[in-house]
Amino acid sequence: MANRSGVGTTALAYIQKYADRLSKRSIARMLAEDHPELYSTTEAARDMVRYYSGSRGRLSKTHSENDKLFFAPYPEAPVTDMFYDISQRRARILCLSDIHVVKNKRITEGKIL
C-alpha cells in the first residue's frame, strides 16, 4: 500500500474506530473539529473519509474493504421450505399475481379496441 500522509492516516484511524456507530458525515465532522490543522473544512475531511471507505468512485475502490465497516451485520434469514397442500377439488385454480393494469382513459372506455 502507498505511503499515507497524516491526513490519510488520521482518517483511516477514525474510520476503523467509529464506522460501526457513526455515518461518514459524522466521522468527517469529528475529524474537522478534532484536527483543524489537517482538515480546513468539514468537506475536506468528508472527502478523505469517502476516499478511504471506497465510496469516491472507481479509483478509490482499492480501499473498499473499509466500506464493510459502515454496515451493521444483519443476521442471516432462516431458510424454510414452503409446502402448499392443494386439494383435488381446488387443483384447477389459476393464480395470476402481480398484474399491472394501465390507467389510461381511452383504454378503460374501450375506444382503442
Whole-Å distance between the termini?
A: 67 Å
Q: How would a crystallographer describe the biggest sheet? A: none
Q: What is the number of strand segments?
A: 0
Low-confidence spans: pLDDT under 50, at least 5 residues? none
Spell the H/E element sequence: HHHH
Tell me, briefly, the overall form: elongated
* Strand residue percentage: under 5%
Question: Rg to the nearest angstrom?
Answer: 27 Å
**Helical stretch count?**
4
What is the mean pLDDT?
78
* Proportion of helical residues: 25-40%
**Alpha-beta content class:** mainly alpha
Write a structural description.
It is a single chain. The protein is mostly helical and 113 residues long. It has a domain at 6-70. The protein contains four helices and no strands. The protein has helices spanning 6-18, 24-34, 42-52, 105-109. The termini are far apart. The model has no long low-confidence stretch (mean pLDDT 78).
Task: Give the helices and strands, then pairings.
Elements: H1 6-18, H2 24-34, H3 42-52, H4 105-109
How would you summarize this macromolecular structure in one to three sentences?
This protein has 113 residues and is mostly helical.
Fill in the keyword field for this structure.
elongated, mainly alpha, 4 helices, single chain, 113 residues
